[in-house]
Specification:
- The protein is an alpha+beta fold and 707 residues long.
- Helices cover 32% and strands 15% of the residues.
- It contains 22 helices and 22 strands.
- The strands form 6 sheets. A 7-stranded mixed beta sheet has the order 5-4-3-6-9-8-7.
- Strand 8 and strand 9 form a beta hairpin.
- Helix 1 packs across helix 5, helix 13 packs across helix 20 and helix 18 runs antiparallel to helix 20.
- The longest helix is centred in the C-terminal third of the chain and has 26 residues.
- The termini are far apart.
- About 9% of the residues have low confidence.
């Protein structure tokens, strides 16, 4: 049948001009036709120019396509055709004249085909009717409704056979006419329609991001890899030719210079921003610890991956840690527009609930070693617990009891998004600390408290909730509010000696948690894990879930890294640059440098962990044998968490560990044998924390702090 159809189709093709008219009427590019027919784009161009004719079997398929298009787009009347021919032409394709695009669309070249888009992302917008495609799930309404960012938040720039293309989210591909880096920046801001709307009405729209492949970096005069000196400096030298080009075109760089995440801008004119961010893959902009092998994906797949992250979290502004911190500010902008004054003019004013525009000094016990507040201390002074606030995640282990050694397995459970769950509902300081002597403890008042909790005695089979090591405190020490509040919850009296409290406070991180929670749950759903699953279904589905969609698995890893990194950035330490203890460092100039907020979140995460372990022990008599951050290991007769977690009629213990996908619930981290656990401790020392290695059983020699 195909052979007969091909024979009939030999003389069934319209003339070359009509072929081109039909394609353009449908809003299709030559590249899209070529992909559908498994042909080269140049071949389609030759067919439309009459230089060559398609041969079987492509000819029959091409004839069917044109026949279908002709039925949908009949030839226009003669008068209409005359109008089209006499209309001014704008060259939007490579040597292909087309009608001038509407003024609200970029003067970019035609879109070309690319792999399918993620399920929850809106289809691409182009200046012609889009080709028929599978109906996707709707994207967030703000994205779909804003024509300024019709092509999505970012694009991956790549070069193929000498042609520069911008791969966008949803399968849209734009041809890039820019011949130089300054021209590329100009094109992005004037024609590409890239970016994302603000996450808060008082915030700023997200600047467009261009991800440069190795080929694109080379095309625009950038080194494919940084030299050793450039990598150590984190940027190109000031005399690099590219910096001269940008300066000549009146483009500026931020203080970071031209590094893996370079920001190129001109000073804002009123409310209009002119800023483009580059993400240079060959300079390790996408760290493998957060992004896996994303940097090695084909450009269309990378555009969909990063675009999905941008829609669900925000447009990346740098590393996942930087993005996590920027997300806090995007959801709580430091300023807002005031009410109109008597002349009807609005002014910029402080936005309540934000951290403001100026940094605030931390309290002395909250300052990390080397901070300017500690410049008066001797150089090698080791601060004691009554001098420094140490709120960190658990790293604790104990020997197995005789009864535990008779069981067959050790099973690890891990809390989903533990730091995000801890951030939810936590009241944190918004302003500067106030020093108080002999205060009365208030669990609703965020701050740092000097108090003696050494009199509190708990079961030694549980780690102490008051120290990261799980050891009982030896005397007065500084604690964040959640830690002291837990001592009160356990029924103990507390008498603080002094405190640094923050009367100006609020639930600053609630919106941050909500957005990251939704991103996490949506991505887990893409991997086949949903909130409606029973514990048994959840455990079964989690087995190998990352293989269901490797790209979504990378997005999941990046979301997790955004949480941990964002909390860690609240107390960013100095990095190189000739810094000396007692000197300031750049991060101290940020309003978001807030070690007290970090301490409160980590304190609450640790307390949440202890509360669940205590509830489990009271209900079952089972105690953890090791705890590392958000992972707890129990001895068990069976290899599954359901073999030791107290579920009754399918319902979990109230206040205890609960299997499930939501942040704060737990998943199966790994199972090893009791013999493995005892053998590892015997070989590597009884201080070995088996929770660190429970996942795969490989006891590494280097320590991973998990931060």
């Amino acid at each position: 049948m195909d052979a007969l159809l091909e024979q009939v189709a030999q003389d069934d093709l319209p003339d070359p001009a009509e072929r081109k008219r039909l394609r353009e009427a449908a809003g299709l590019s030559q590249a899209q036709i070529a992909v559908a027919l498994n042909a080269r784009r140049e071949a389609v161009g030759n067919w439309e120019a009459g230089r060559t004719e398609p041969r079987p079997p492509k000819r029959a398929a091409y004839a069917r396509l044109l026949e279908g298009l002709a039925a949908r787009f009949p030839a226009p009347a003669a008068e209409s055709a005359t109008e089209v021919r006499t209309a001014p032409e704008t060259f939007t394709g490579r040597n292909t004249p087309a009608a001038a695009p509407p003024t609200d669309q970029p003067r970019s070249r035609p879109a070309r085909a690319a792999p399918p888009q993620p399920a929850d992302v809106a289809p691409p917008t182009s200046r012609r009717p889009a080709a028929k495609r599978a109906t996707p799930k709707p994207a967030p309404a703000t994205q779909a409704a804003d024509p300024r960012f019709a092509h999505g938040p970012l694009a991956v720039i790549d070069v193929t056979e000498g042609e520069v293309s911008a791969y966008c989210l949803g399968g849209l591909v734009l041809d890039v006419p820019a011949k130089s880096l300054p021209a590329l920046v100009e094109w992005t801001l004037t024609e590409a329609k890239l970016g994302a709307p603000r996450l808060h009405r008082s915030g700023k729209d997200a600047d467009p991001v261009l991800v440069l492949t190795d080929a694109a970096a080379e095309r625009y005069g950038l080194p494919v890899r940084l030299s050793d000196d450039e990598r150590r400096a984190g940027r190109l030298p000031e005399n690099h030719q590219i910096l001269k080009q940008l300066d000549k075109a009146n483009w500026q760089l931020t203080r970071r210079g031209f590094g893996p995440w370079a920001r190129i801008y001109r000073p804002a004119q009123g409310s209009k921003r002119s800023c483009v961010q580059l993400c240079i893959l060959g300079w390790n902009a996408l760290d493998e610890r957060s992004w896996g092998h994303a940097a090695h994906l084909p450009a269309p797949e990378l555009a969909n991956l990063l675009g999905t992250y941008a829609h669900r979290v925000m447009t990346p502004r740098g590393s996942t840690a930087v993005t996590g911190l920027e997300l806090m500010t995007a959801l709580h902008p430091p300023t807002r527009a005031s009410d109109p004054d008597e002349k009807g003019k609005r002014h910029r004013e402080h936005n309540p609930g934000s951290l403001g525009t100026e940094p605030v000094d931390c309290a002395p016990p909250e300052a990390p070693d080397g901070h300017p507040l500690l410049a008066h201390l001797p150089r090698f002074h080791q601060r004691t617990p009554d001098e420094v606030l140490v709120e960190e995640a658990y790293d604790w282990a104990r020997p197995l009891t005789d009864d535990e050694c008779t069981q067959r397995f050790v099973v690890g459970i891990d809390v989903n998004m533990a730091f995000a769950a801890a951030a939810n509902g936590t009241v944190v300081g918004l302003g500067a600390p106030v020093h108080v002597k002999q205060p009365v403890f208030d669990p609703k008042l965020p701050g740092s408290w000097l108090v003696d909790l050494s009199h509190i005695e708990l079961d030694p089979r549980l780690p102490s909730p008051f120290t990261p090591t799980g050891e009982r405190p030896m005397g007065p020490a500084w604690y964040a509010t959640p830690t002291v509040a837990y001592a009160v919850e356990l029924g103990h009296e507390v008498t603080p000696i002094e405190a640094y409290v923050r009367p100006d406070n609020g639930r600053y991180l609630d919106g941050w948690y909500n957005r990251l929670r939704d991103a996490y749950i949506a991505t887990m759903a893409d991997l086949g894990i949903t909130t409606s699953m029973s514990p048994e279904e959840f455990l079964a589905a989690m087995d190998g879930h990352k293989q269901n969609d490797p790209q979504m698995a990378i997005v999941l890893t990046a979301i997790r890294a955004t949480v941990k990194g964002g909390i860690g950035k609240l107390r960013e330490r100095p990095r190189g640059g000739g810094w000396r203890p007692g000197q300031s460092w750049p991060a101290l100039g940020r309003p978001t440098w807030r070690p007290d907020i970090r301490a409160a979140v980590i304190s609450k995460a640790r307390i949440n962990m202890h509360r669940k372990m205590l509830k489990t022990a009271q209900a079952t008599g089972r105690y953890p044998v090791a705890v590392l951050s958000d992972c707890a290991v129990y001895a068990s007769d069976g290899p599954s968490p359901l073999d030791f977690l107290p579920y009754k009629d399918g319902k979990p213990l109230p206040g205890g560990f609960r299997l499930g996908v939501s942040p704060g619930m737990v998943k199966h981290e790994g199972t090893q044998t009791i013999l493995w656990a005892e053998g590892a401790r015997e070989e590597h020392g009884h201080d070995l924390n088996i929770a660190r290695y429970i996942k795969d059983g490989n006891v590494a020699t280097t320590k991973d702090t998990g931060e």
